[in-house]
Design goal:
The protein is about 80% helix and about 0% strand. With about 90 residues, it is mainly α. Helix 1 runs antiparallel to helix 2 (about 35-60) and helix 2 (about 35-60) packs antiparallel against helix 3 (about 65-90). The longest helix is centred in the middle third of the chain and has 27 residues, at about 35-60. It is elongated and about 45 Å long. About 15% of the residues are buried.
Length: about 90
């Protein structure tokens, strides 16, 4: 059961990373479109892609420690992305 949930989380991470890499216009409705924000989205896109690959490995090895470490890293990266993205939304769009 944990393997299935890890696989679903991994697919979701890879989907989000695809959106951050390829569909950036969706995010630029909310934030200013400049090079700094492009780099921001690219960085978190690669972080989510890395976590997706890490999730595949964690599901393959099926160890409780690796699964908890993977979940901790996903929560940490998601929280930092959410907080930084919310700050960028709050900035005035000039």
């Amino acid at each position: 059961m944990i393997r299935i949930l890890m696989a679903i989380a991994t697919l979701l991470l890879l989907f989000v990373s695809y959106y951050l890499f390829q569909k950036q216009k969706v995010f630029f409705v909310l934030i200013k479109e400049d090079e700094k924000n492009h780099a921001f989205l690219q960085f978190y896109g690669s972080a989510y892609a890395f976590l997706g690959v890490l999730g595949i490995l964690a599901a393959f090895f099926n160890q409780r420690f690796f699964a908890l470490l993977f979940l901790f890293l996903v929560i940490l990266v998601s929280a930092t992305f959410s907080i930084r993205f919310a700050k960028k939304i709050a900035e005035p769009k000039q």
